[in-house]
Specification:
Blueprint: E1 3-10, H1 14-25, E2 30-34, H2 49-54, H3 56-75, H4 90-114, E3 118-121, E4 124-130, E5 133-138, E6 141-150, E7 154-156, E8 169-170, H5 172-175, E9 184-188, H6 192-203, E10 207-211, H7 223-236, E11 239-241, E12 245-252, E13 255-261, E14 267-272, E15 274-277, E16 281-283, H8 290-293, E17 316-318, H9 329-343, E18 357-359, E19 364-369, H10 372-378, E20 382-388, H11 393-398, E21 404-410, E22 416-423, H12 426-438, H13 443-448, H14 457-466
Parallel strand pairs: 1-2, 1-6, 2-3, 6-17, 8-15, 9-10, 9-15, 10-11
Antiparallel strand pairs: 4-5, 5-6, 7-16, 12-13, 13-14, 18-19, 19-22, 20-21, 21-22
Helix pairs in contact: 1-9, 3-4, 3-6
Catalytic activity: N(6)-[(R)-dihydrolipoyl]-L-lysyl-[protein] + NAD(+) = N(6)-[(R)-lipoyl]-L-lysyl-[protein] + NADH + H(+)
Subcellular location: Cytoplasm
Keywords: Cytoplasm, Disulfide bond, FAD, Flavoprotein, NAD, Nucleotide-binding, Oxidoreductase, Redox-active center
Length: about 475
């Protein structure tokens, strides 16, 4: 007899494990299926998805280590600290990164046990509609669930003619595990992954060249932020080439050669020890047996859902990277909670206008809400307040004066429409912008809130004042 559940979640990444935990908290008999072992030494399925295993978490660990290395080599002297020439033990750095991953992925198992979620190791795929809901094959067994939440995530998009072996030519997985610092590193794609991982290895000593097909840098960000980011990252040593067309890529035992044309149309050739391909991600929907049950996918392979993450099939839901919207772990988690609560008859809520975006370069880049170019295109009358970190006492004290905070507010109502930050701590500071937009705050509200002194948050306070042309310290 098949096991029966109220809720079965297919996929154990941020969207999946959060959906399972919240559903169990709401009293549902819940199971979560996961088949990917990632780097598990025993080859057993691991929870946490791309984010915890080969994405957000390990990349941030390497970014922190490489930041400390760069500070030791270039920043300490300005503060009167002499340490000599720093050396990096790549093996120890990777071991630390793996330890953090092991701790967090193992922690999810503990959360499952605490919340009475059944973990089903194995690949989940639809079989047919059944009397009790949906029959789903998980590994060698078949289970039945009244509700199925698909949270199978995404995988790196690869380019035709450029075979990824995760040794010489790598995607995000291989770029986290180089056994040594490459002398020359090429990166195709100047998006979040390319810039973050390019920054890691650049700080550790690699000569990094980034090749981007688009003519604009960070086109999704506010143009002021993108312009500042390009200037600062170039100053740090990243060679960023925009508007290129990739040609033939040849590999050898010890390296790779990339032929491309630059923005002027001239033929170029780049030789490197390693190549990172970071050109976006594609949804993991090909193993769901979607066609057999009529689960509707769009032309990009994403599952079609409504505003509440319902699919075209009764009792089948989908969240995270397999549906529309940004491929962000925190977006997946919000959808997961909303779906579980909707199944329970509650009012699950997802506000796509208040999802923050973060790039963990140095300085960090973060934003929420509308960019200035979006407001112009929509014909919205707005006012802007922009304050550099260079005027902030805390920023000066920690030696992090690059960047600025920019707040966009409605010209008539003063309602905050966008908050854009490039600077130290941007990933945390943007949360104030999220709260402001979520609660329909005015720039005046932020300007009237007392911010602790001395803190980096005061720059956001000054930017709010600046929308009314009355900053106090800049």
């Amino acid at each position: 007899m098949s096991k029966e559940f109220d809720v079965l979640v297919i996929g154990g990444g941020p969207g999946g494990y959060v959906a399972a935990i919240r559903a169990a908290q709401l009293g549902f008999k819940t199971a979560c299926a996961e088949s990917n072992p990632y780097a598990d030494p025993k080859g057993e399925p691991r929870l946490g998805g791309t984010c915890l295993n080969v994405g957000c978490i390990p990349s941030k660990a390497l970014l922190h280590t490489s930041h400390l290395f760069e500070e030791a080599g270039h920043g300490f002297a300005d503060q009167g600290i002499s340490v000599g020439t720093p050396k990096i033990d790549v093996g120890k750095m990777l071991a630390r990164k793996s330890g953090i991953v092991d701790q967090l992925t193992g922690g999810i198992k503990g959360l499952f046990k605490k919340n009475k979620v059944t973990f089903l190791p194995g690949h989940g795929s639809f079989v047919k509609q059944a009397a009790g809901g949906w029959e789903v094959k998980v590994g060698a067994e078949t289970v039945v669930a009244k509700n199925v939440i698909v949270a199978t995530g995404s995988k790196a998009r690869h380019l035709p003619g450029i075979p990824v072996d995760n040794k010489i030519i790598v995607d995000n997985v291989g770029a986290l595990d180089f056994d040594a610092v490459p002398k020359k590193l090429a990166v195709i794609g100047a998006g979040v992954i390319g810039l973050e991982l390019g920054s890691v290895w650049r700080r550790l000593g690699a000569e990094v060249t980034v090749l981007e097909a688009l003519p604009d840098f960070l086109a999704a960000a506010d143009q002021d932020v993108a312009k500042e980011a390009l200037k600062l990252l170039t100053k740090q040593g990243l060679k960023i080439n925009l508007g290129v067309q990739i040609g033939e890529v040849k590999t050898a035992k010890k390296g790779v050669t990339i032929a491309y044309t630059d923005k002027s149309g001239a033929a170029q050739k780049l030789e490197a020890d390693r190549l990172i391909v970071s050109v976006g991600r594609v949804p993991n929907t090909d193993g769901l047996n979607a066609g057999a049950v009529g689960l509707k996918l769009n032309e990009r392979g994403m599952i079609e859902v409504d505003g509440h993450c319902r699919t075209n099939l009764p009792g089948v839901w989908a969240v995270g990277d397999v549906v529309r919207g940004p491929m962000l772990a925190h977006k997946a988690m919000e959808e997961a909670v909303a779906v579980a609560e909707t199944i329970a008859g509650q009012a699950g809520h997802i506000n796509f206008d208040t999802i923050p975006y973060v790039i963990y370069t140095s300085p960090e880049i973060a934003w929420v809400g509308k960019t200035e170019q979006q407001l112009k295109a929509e014909g919205v009358a707005y006012k802007a307040g922009k304050i550099p970190f260079a005027f902030n006492g805390r920023a000066l004290g920690i030696g992090a004066t690059d960047g600025f905070v920019k707040i966009l507010a409605d010209a008539a109502t003063d309602r905050v429409l966008g908050v854009h930050i490039i600077g130290a701590g941007a990933s945390d500071l943007v949360a104030e912008g999220v709260v402001a937009i979520e609660f329909s705050a005015a720039a005046e509200d932020l300007a009237r809130i007392c911010h602790a002194h001395p803190t980096l948050s005061e720059v956001l306070h000054e930017a709010a004042l600046a929308t009314d042309k009355r900053p106090l310290h800049a």
